[in-house]
Specification:
heterodimer, A: D-Maltodextrin-Binding Protein, domain 2, 2 domains, six-stranded mixed β-sheet, 14 strands, B: mainly alpha, signal (chain A), Raffinose/stachyose/melibiose transport system substrate-binding protein (chain A)
C-alpha cells in the first residue's frame, strides 16, 4: 500500500508535536501570585488620561439605567477617565470572565460572583486584588453590615470563604422570596403567608379553587436552586444552611434537607407547580404569574420591576418565609455580584474610586430612583407601604438587621449548580426520591470537601 | 474529504512515476512541500495547535485558572465510568437515528416520488423551501421549536384539535419525550439537505437508463432499486457523513432547548465538554470528552467513507 508509506512522515510529525506539547509545562503554570505587593493606596486619582475597562452584568432594564447614569456621573467628576463598559448577562459573564481574567490584559474592574466556583477560583489563581486596604480608606467596613462584607471575603489562597481579605463590594441587595398576587389571594379567601405552613395551606386553597398555586419554570435549570432554597431555609434555619454552604458542618442528607425535598416532591404530586416545568422557561413562569394565572411565584428581587409592571405595584406582594420559632425571615440572597479589582490592573486607585462611586450612599439613591434594591439603604430612607417595592425593601431591612440571609446554594462546590439543578428537575418529575436527591447532593459535597482538604 | 485525498494520492503517484520511474520507492520532490506549506501553516496554527492543546489538557486536572496537576488517564477513565458522560454519548447515538438514519430513508422515499416530477415547473422553488431549515440560524430554529413543543404550543394545539388531548404535554420537559423531541428537530433540519442532495444525484443519471428500464417493463420500485439507489451511493455517503457528524456534535439545539434537562436526559458530549470547560471548572475532563468525541466522529466518518463507490471521479 503506497498510501501508507506516504503517511509515515505526517504521523511522525504529529507524534513529535504531541510529545513536545505534552512535555511542555502544565497548563496554567504561572500559579497564584499571592506574594505580589499591592503598594500604598490613595483616594487621589491619577490626573493622566486613562481608560478603565469595566465588565458588569447589569443588563436588566432598571439596573442598566442606573449603571449608565452612574458611569456618566463618574466621568463628569473625573474628566480624564473614560469608562469602557462591557455589559453581559449573568450566564455570559460567568462563562467568559474566567478566560478574560487569565489573559495578559484583563479588565480593570469586574463583577465577580461570590462563592467557591467563581470568586474562590479567581482568588486561588491570583487574579483578583484584595480590597481590604481600600475598604479601610473608603470606610466600606462600616458602611456595609458584616453579613454582607463576609460574603465577599476569601482567604488569600482561595480556600476559605467568608474570612480573610475583602475581594469586592456589592452595589445591589438581593433576596429570593415568594411573590403573591393580592387579588387572587382575596379571591380564594386567604391572607398572605408568613411561614411555610401558611404557604402550603394557601396553595391547597388555590388548588381547591382551580387556580394554579405556584408558577414554576425550570427550563434554564437555575430556578430549581431558588425553589429548593426557599423551602430549605424555612425548614433548616439560617445557621444550618450557612454552615452547610460554607463547608463548616452538616450534611445534605440531614433530616431538614430531606424534608425540604419531600415537601417539594409532595407539591409536585399534588399539582401545585406548573406542569411539565422542566420544559417551561423561567420567563414564561414569571409572565404567567404576571398575567394573574397563579397565586404565587418563587423568584428573586431582580424580578421586582417586571412583576410590578405586570401586576401593578400595589396588587403584588413579596414575602420571605420565617422558620418556625425564628424571629426573622430566612432566605437566600444577600447582595449582587461583587465589584472586584483585577490583580493586573495598572490603575487600582482609579478602580477603587470607581467602585466607591457606584456603591456609596449617593449611588444608592440613584438605584432606588431607578427601581432597584441597593445593598445598603441611604440613612433616613423609609420604604413606601402597600406596594411591592415597599414589601421588598421592608423584608430586606428585616433580614439585614437579623443577619439571617443565607448564601445561594450553588456557591457550595464548583459542580453544585449542575448537580442541584438537574437533581431538582428529577425530584419534581418524580424521577428521583427525596432521599436519592439529597444523597446525590451529598456525594458532590463530600467529593469537593475531600479535594478541598 | 476521502475522495480528495485519493485523487491527490493518485496524481502524486503518477507524477512521481514520471520523474523517477525505475526506482522502487519513488523520490518525492521537496518543492511539492513548499506549495503545501501556506495551507499547512494556517491549518497548524488555527487547528493543529488548539487540537494538540486540547489533547494535552485532557491529561491534566485543571480548573482553567490555577496550576494544573497531572491526571494521567483518569479523565478518560472518567468518561467511561461516569454515568453522566456515558449517558451523553448514548444520547448522541439516539440522535444519530433521528439526524441521519430517518432523514436519509425519508429523503430517498421523497426523492423517489419527486424524481418522477423532475420536469415540474417551480422545482427550484420547491428545493429552496426544502433546504430552508439548513439556512436558518440554529438558535432561531431551536427557539421556534421550544414554542412549538410548549404547553400551549402548536403541537399540543394540533393534538387537541384532532381529539388527542390526552397526549398533550410539555414535550421538552418530559423525560420520555425530550430527547426524541430534539431528535425530531434534527430530522426536520436534515431531511431537506438529503432530498436536495439526492434529487441532484438523480439528475445526473442518464435518462436513457430509465427509458431502457421502462421499455423492459420495470415498475417504479424496480426502477428505484435497480437504477436510482445504486447511482446515489456517493450522495448517500455524503449525506450520511454530514448528518451523522451533525448528530454527534449537536450542541446549539440542546443548549437552547433543554440545557441537557430534564435532569440529565438530553445531555450530549459537546454540551458536556462546553459545560465542564466553561461552567464547572473541569477543563481536563472537558478536553477528554472532546478528544473522544473527535475520535468517534473520525471512526464513523471513515466507516461511512467505505460506502462511497470506488470510482467516483
Amino acid at each position: 500500500m503506497n498510501r501508507t508509506h506516504r503517511r509515515v512522515p505526517l504521523v511522525i510529525g504529529v507524534a513529535a508535536c504531541l510529545v513536545a506539547g505534552l512535555a511542555a509545562c502544565a497548563p496554567g503554570g504561572s500559579g497564584p501570585s499571592t506574594s505580589a505587593s499591592t503598594g500604598p493606596v490613595s483616594k487621589t486619582v491619577t490626573k493622566d488620561k486613562i481608560t478603565l475597562t469595566v465588565w458588569d452584568q447589569n443588563t436588566d432594564g432598571g439596573i442598566d439605567t442606573a449603571q449608565q447614569q452612574l458611569n456618566k456621573a463618574f466621568e463628569a467628576k473625573y474628566p480624564n477617565i473614560t469608562i469602557k463598559r462591557v455589559s453581559r448577562s449573568f450566564a455570559d459573564l460567568k462563562t467568559t470572565l474566567k478566560l478574560a481574567l487569565s489573559g495578559n490584559n484583563p479588565p480593570d474592574v469586574v463583577q465577580a460572583n461570590q462563592g467557591y466556583p467563581d470568586m474562590g477560583a479567581f482568588v486561588k489563581g491570583g487574579l483578583l486584588r484584595t480590597e481590604s486596604d481600600y475598604a479601610k480608606l473608603y470606610g466600606w467596613n462600616s458602611y456595609y453590615p458584616q453579613s454582607l462584607l463576609k460574603l465577599n471575603m476569601f482567604s488569600s489562597d482561595g480556600k476559605d470563604w467568608q474570612t480573610g481579605n475583602l475581594y469586592g463590594v456589592s452595589q445591589t441587595g438581593e433576596l429570593v422570596g415568594v411573590y403573591y398576587n393580592k387579588k387572587v389571594l382575596s379571591q380564594i379567601g386567604v391572607s398572605a403567608p408568613k411561614t411555610l405552613a401558611d404557604l402550603e395551606s394557601d396553595m391547597a386553597a388555590a388548588k381547591a379553587k382551580g387556580i394554579l398555586p405556584l408558577s414554576y419554570g425550570s427550563l434554564e435549570k437555575s430556578p430549581g436552586i431558588h425553589l429548593y432554597g426557599v423551602v430549605q431555609a424555612a425548614l433548616a434555619g439560617s445557621t444550618a444552611v450557612d454552615d452547610l454552604v460554607t463547608l463548616k458542618s452538616g450534611s445534605w442528607t440531614d433530616s431538614a434537607n430531606v424534608k425540604a425535598a419531600q415537601t417539594i416532591a409532595d407539591w409536585s404530586k399534588k399539582g401545585y407547580l406548573t406542569s411539565g416545568s422542566s420544559g417551561v422557561s423561567q420567563d414564561t413562569a414569571v409572565s404567567s404569574f404576571g398575567a394573574g394565572k397563579s397565586a404565587f411565584l418563587i423568584d428573586g428581587t431582580w424580578q421586582e420591576a417586571t412583576v410590578a409592571k405586570d401586576l401593578g405595584d400595589s396588587n403584588a406582594g413579596f414575602v420571605a418565609l420565617t422558620p418556625e420559632g425564628a424571629s426573622a425571615p430566612v432566605t437566600q440572597g444577600g447582595e449582587g455580584l461583587a465589584w472586584a479589582i483585577t490583580s493586573k490592573t495598572k490603575n487600582a486607585n482609579a478602580a477603587a474610586a470607581y467602585i466607591d462611586f457606584i456603591t456609596n450612599e449617593s449611588a444608592a439613591n440613584t438605584l432606588i430612583k431607578t427601581g432597584n434594591l441597593p445593598a445598603v439603604f441611604p440613612s433616613g430612607y423609609t420604604p413606601p407601604s402597600g406596594t411591592l417595592t415597599g414589601d421588598i425593601d421592608t423584608q430586606y431591612e428585616k433580614i439585614s438587621a437579623a443577619s439571617s440571609v443565607v448564601p445561594y446554594l450553588d456557591y457550595t462546590t464548583s459542580t453544585f449548580y449542575d448537580t442541584m439543578t438537574a437533581g431538582m428537575q428529577n425530584l419534581v418529575a418524580g424521577q428521583m426520591t427525596p432521599a436519592q436527591y439529597t444523597a446525590s447532593l451529598q456525594t458532590d459535597y463530600a467529593a469537593f470537601k475531600k479535594e478541598h482538604g | 474529504m476521502t475522495t480528495g485525498e485519493r485523487v491527490t494520492a493518485r496524481s502524486r503517484a503518477a507524477g512521481a512515476t514520471r520523474s523517477a520511474a525505475p526506482s522502487r520507492r519513488p523520490k518525492r520532490s521537496w518543492k511539492a512541500y513548499l506549495y503545501v506549506l501556506p495551507a499547512f501553516a494556517v491549518f497548524a496554527l488555527f487547528l493543529g495547535v488548539p487540537t494538540l492543546q486540547t489533547v494535552q489538557y485532557s491529561f491534566y486536572t485543571w480548573d482553567g485558572i490555577s496550576r494544573a496537576t497531572a491526571a494521567g488517564l483518569s479523565n478518560y477513565a472518567a468518561v467511561l465510568q461516569d454515568p453522566e458522560l456515558r449517558g451523553a454519548f448514548l444520547h448522541a447515538g439516539v440522535l444519530m437515528v433521528f439526524y441521519a438514519a430517518i432523514p436519509v430513508l425519508l429523503g430517498l422515499l421523497l426523492t423517489m416520488v419527486i424524481s418522477r416530477a423532475n420536469a415540474l415547473r417551480g422545482m427550484s422553488a420547491f428545493r429552496t423551501v426544502l433546504f430552508l431549515p439548513q439556512v436558518i440560524a440554529s438558535v432561531v430554529v431551536a427557539t421556534i421549536w421550544v414554542s412549538i413543543y410548549s404547553q400551549n404550543g402548536l403541537l399540543n394545539q394540533l393534538l387537541d384539535g384532532v381529539g388527542l388531548g390526552s397526549l398533550t404535554r410539555v414535550w421538552l420537559g418530559d423525560y420520555g419525550t425530550a430527547l426524541i423531541a430534539i431528535g425530531f428537530v434534527g430530522t426536520w433540519l436534515n431531511i431537506g439537505l438529503c432530498v436536495v442532495l439526492f434529487v441532484s444525484g438523480v439528475g445526473n443519471i442518464q435518462p436513457e437508463l430509465f427509458e431502457a428500464a421502462r421499455m423492459d417493463g420495470a415498475g417504479a420500485l424496480q426502477e428505484f432499486f435497480g437504477i436510482t439507489l445504486p447511482a446515489l451511493r456517493g450522495q448517500i455517503a455524503v449525506a450520511l457523513t454530514l448528518t451523522v457528524t451533525s448528530a454527534l456534535k449537536t450542541f446549539d439545539l440542546v443548549y437552547v432547548t433543554t440545557r441537557g434537562g430534564p435532569g440529565t436526559s438530553t445531555t450530549v458530549p459537546a454540551f458536556e465538554a462546553y459545560n465542564r470547560a466553561f461552567n464547572t471548572g473541569q477543563v481536563g475532563a472537558a478536553a477528554a470528552v472532546a478528544v473522544i468525541l473527535t475520535i468517534v466522529i473520525m471512526i464513523i466518518t471513515a466507516l461511512i467513507g467505505r460506502l462511497q463507490p470506488k470510482d467516483v471521479a
